[in-house]
Amino acid sequence: MSLYTVSRLLRSALRTQLVPAANVSSKPAKHNISAGEQAVAMTAMFVAILGPSGWILAHLEDYKKKE
Questions:
Q1: pTM passes above 0.85
Q2: Which of 4, 8, 22, 66 is the most core-located residue (most Cβ within 10 A)?
Q3: Which residues contact 63 (CB under 8 A, 6 or more apart)?
């Protein structure tokens, strides 16, 4: 397969739209979220994402031990 053919394949793959475009709206939000709700949601997300990785890093030496 020549470089030209690969280049054409990549260009055509980039041109095709696998996922339809999102409907973007400039209207205001239907439900306003308070600062407290945002803080709770962000805290929950950080704990869910960073908690397990922090646990693993904190106990890395324990995992290295061969028993």
A1: no
A2: 8
A3: 56
